[in-house]
């Protein structure tokens, strides 16, 4: 029912109902762009469902949430926070007893959960038509939480009990500023939401939950992998991080120049593991862990199943803050530098953290999600590790630590010594053992 050959293009999407928002028509490969600027890729023989058109804007606030074809807009009750709820989109009509994988899609800077949920669904539809490794759509569930802001509250989209945040602070794990006096971290809300998919009464065959995000959504996914507390189902939670504008760095070393304007904040959260000096706050729910035992935080992160995806043409500056520029000059360079940092830590880059580089792709959400490698990571892959750890050579590690700041040494103890020093120490140790 999804093949382009069955449609003319321009008609309403399958499952369309009265009251669904405009814009959700069928696009074919040669059918132009939808409201979000996306188009169907030539590698996909399936239709693309256009993104819903919405009243309002990310700058002035969204006025209402659109009805998305084939999805419901529901509200998840947050345990321990009174009547507060996390609003979210979720695919409608699927048999929950058949679901084996839930895809939890984060929005972008525009807080456009309806758009990103739809993009993930379009990628799923495309993946289902892949003859070499087809995906069973009945076993995959797409859902997308909505992180509202104060502007959305003023504009009218926020319900009475919906949590909302100051700007886009949700991406760094900040506390909500409403409803009322409700202060819940986006991480705590996400923990509860994710854990609901491991309720065997509802999802008896659930195997994996995959948190995915592109751009600002990827920044949240990467930082959530750091902030999420250790939990029983961690081995079934996976992360896909696409083209983030910046990272929460694991060491105090940086590959690029640390300018004077951020010499005291370049490693402060959300760019690293130190407490900011007045420019922001460490997520309060995790302050004690961050401040007292950063090495354990890093070890926890390195144990998780994380798949990074970087567009090889993503040369845009993205986050222009001084702290982000110390990580590299572009989205792509920051991703490459983050991989190098991991390779140069003790033990190297573990096999459970993988970097994919997507050719001919810039800062484009749907082309990143609908690339065959990303589809495999998001919808199919079950292995935790892809092999042994990879260790950086001397040149890689010299670049990764080019802007080391010894006076801000949190996490730096995890860096691997350059190969020459390791070799010398190894020879000395072997000599000592020979004497014993």
UniProtKB/TrEMBL annotation:
Region (Disordered): 1-34
Gene3D superfamilies membership: alpha/beta hydrolase
SUPFAM superfamilies the record matches: alpha/beta-Hydrolases (SSF53474)
InterPro entries with a match to the protein in the record: AB_hydrolase_fold
Descriptive protein name: Uncharacterized protein
Lineage: Eukaryota, Fungi, Dikarya, Basidiomycota, Agaricomycotina
